[in-house]
Amino acid sequence: MKKYDPKVTPWQVAEQDFPKDGALEEKFKFLLRYAILAPSGHNTQPWKFKLQPDGVFIYADYTRRLPVVDPDDRELVIGTGAAIMNLRVAAAHFGYACEVQHQPKANTPELLASARLFESSQTDTELKKLFPAIVQRRTNRIAYEVRSLAEGELERLQELTSGQKAAICIVADKTIQPSIAELVSQGDLIQMSDPVFRQELASWVRSNWTLRGDGIAAYGFGIPGIISWMGPWFMRTFDLGKPQAKKDYQFAKEAAALIIVHGEDTKESLLEVGEMFERFVLTATSMDLQYAFLNQPVEVRDLRTRLQAILGLADLPQLLFRIGYAEPQKRAMPRRPLDAVLIEFSKTGEKEMAL
Asked: How large a percentage of the chain has pLDDT more than 90?
């Protein structure tokens, strides 16, 4: 059997391997191979799945939380929402409808959603179109070309901005972007000056040769070769806020557009934020656009309030990222094997997840 490489193997999932004649459990497990390719904060992959006779239960895995940068677990829930969107897209591609209920059991807070899956000849055609983008999507942190979105692209993305409990704001106004860029810059200075923040970030940074199935491989930050072994130590030891702030200011100011996903700080809203975000970046990927997070103003409480005021939002900014044109990031981030995120059944009943 070919050795499992967490940076390669999970991304080589092949649609021709879908078990058309297999049991429902096999089919559902195959769909989850696409769900786990969703992005998450520091690539923690904070989700668990439990197969059901008619679908999947989706759980938050609070053992993988980020207490410093995400003390309220907002981004943890958002990441799980992104995985749900991937599940929806993969299900539609293989001829399955996917009915999702957020927080189906009020007395089980770690159970974030249930997804009922059933064969259908009327699956969402727009979701089907996004299927190839699941394995192509990458967070791309390099500098982008300084140019506006091509004609028609802004209009296509605007079609994705309205939800029930969340929405997306697209900022392509060069008179507003510098104000947001300043908040990003201030966020860098605040976060990177905190040794506890740097320690948490460094604990999730991996070398370029990592065999671990989570965290951020150093090439994602543009750290090359042998130097990548020193990446975590360097981040822990030195306050790199000033150069990072300068760079991110330019990234935000010069982006083709800045995207803000906003909603309330409730699990239902945050799950929708995650789903809308993932649909947006899958669409952007299909349009040959790149994206990268600039979440600093959302993660620092005072800056979040100021960002809300600049945008005139009635609710709260939850994610901030830039989009634009650049050389694609070819190397993917690592993923744990699917079996590592499945909650299994024992002969005597369900195994309880340690949360």
From this structure: 91
**pLDDT tens for residues 60-86?**
999 999 999 999 999 999 999 999 999
- What's the sign of the alpha-carbon dihedral 295, 301, 303, 304? positive
166: three-class secondary structure by DSSP:
strand
Tokens of 285: 């990927």
Share of the chain above pLDDT 70, in %: 97
Domains of the chain: 9-138+333-350 (3.40.109), 153-193+239-324 (3.40.109.10)
Least Cα distance to 262 among 120, 165, 147 occurs for: 165
Q: What are φ and ψ of residue 139, in 5° steps? A: -75, 125
Backbone angles phi, psi at 333, to 5 degrees: -80, 155
Interatomic CA distance for residues 284 and 132, integer angstroms = 12
| Residue 320 CB neighbours (<10 A) | 27
Q: List all residues 6 or more positions away from 242 whose beta carbon is below 8 Å from its beta carbon.
A: 189
Distances (CA, A) of 227 to 81, 99, 190, 234, 238: 34, 46, 26, 10, 15
Per-residue pLDDT of 226-240, as tens digits, reads 899 998 999 999 999
Which residues touch 56 (CB under 8 Å, ≥6 apart)? Answer: 28, 31, 32, 49, 50, 87, 114, 115, 117
The pLDDT of residue 1 is: 64
pTM: 0.95
Q: Rounded CA gap, 252 and 303, in Å?
A: 15
- How high is the pLDDT of residue 45? 98
Query: 324, exposed or middle or buried, with CB in 10 Å at 0-12, 13-18, 19+?
Result: buried
Residue 237 identity (one-letter amino acid) = T
Cα 251 from Cα 249, distance rounded (Å):
5
The Cα–Cα gap between 154 and 176 comes to 17
Q: How far is CA 215 from the centre of its chain?
A: 13
Residue 104 has pLDDT above 90, yes or no: no
Q: What is the CA radius of gyration of the chain?
A: 20
Q: What is the distance between the alpha carbons of residues 290 and 142, in angstroms, rounded to a whole number?
A: 9
